[in-house]
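SUBJECT: A protein chain and its fold
Encoding: whole-number codes for local backbone shapes
RECORD BEGINS BELOW THIS LINE
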Amino acid sequence: FAADGSTVAKSTTYDNGITRVADFTDGALTTITRLDNPGASDGGAKAWDSIVSTFDASGNISSDSVVNDNGTSTVTTYNAEGTRTGVVKTDNQTVDGSDLNTWDTVALTYDGAGNVTERTTTYDNGVVRVDTFTDGVRSSVTMTDNPGAADDGVKSWASQQTTYDAAGNITQKSVVADDGTETATTFLDGNRATVVMTDSLLDGGFETWESITSTYDATGEITQKTRVDDDGSTTIQGYTDGALTAFSVVDSPVGAGNEIWDRIDTTYASDGTNTTTTTLTTYDDGVESLDVRVDGVRTQRVDTDNSADGSARIWTTSEDFFDATGEISGGR
């Protein structure tokens, strides 16, 4: 008892060996500590070693800490209304690595309605996973490989982030590799819609390209692939029903570019028997050259001077026709 006669502590030992100690401040309960047969060698009567509960000034529980016989522990926190706000689970910490679980800690937070809003899992190998939830539905998953470590960790990637819509369908996934390259994939109705690969910004990158962007239709067939190279040039491939139907190469827009042409556009068309390839080359001086081939054999070539003042060539249009052997058969 205190000097004023108020209770400071109350200790109770039960027949099964459990000890309960209640602590008070100014007559108000502040802590309850339960110990399962302290000093016993057989693990006691319960599956836990100790439970410590704390209370606020109004007598509401604010936390529970449970240490189990197997060395695992759980700490639960509550708000002033007695609603659970957080849970932290810790695996048994052993020197020889014989943990009971594949994780070291799992931390959960809850909203006022009791729904989990975030779960953070730290695994034995140092990988950290954070799941977020909206109205009880998972909205994102972020995984980080050994954050803060001096080396590259245990994975070939540094981080992964996945987002989900309100129905739980995946909408986007982004992976950053150890070398700094990144792959970002978007999804529509659960189907892959786009994939963007970006080269690392470290040490000038590790690839000959800066980015590769692929788009897909609702059936999962690729519709377009665009590659931007380190020299600024761009390659665009178009697909129909998974088959290549268009191919374009655009010279770098920086300075005078790298080629004597601005762009080359090629289309492919098949009537079921023959494949016609049409290539339009636009040169730096404004001249356009149209080349038509059937099954690889040139049938027609048309050159047009589309320069600003029409002075790139001495003619406006030059057209040649070719026979089945690819030899010129006529022109104008």
Remarks:
- DSSP finds no helices and 25 strands in the chain.
- The chain has a mean pLDDT of 91.
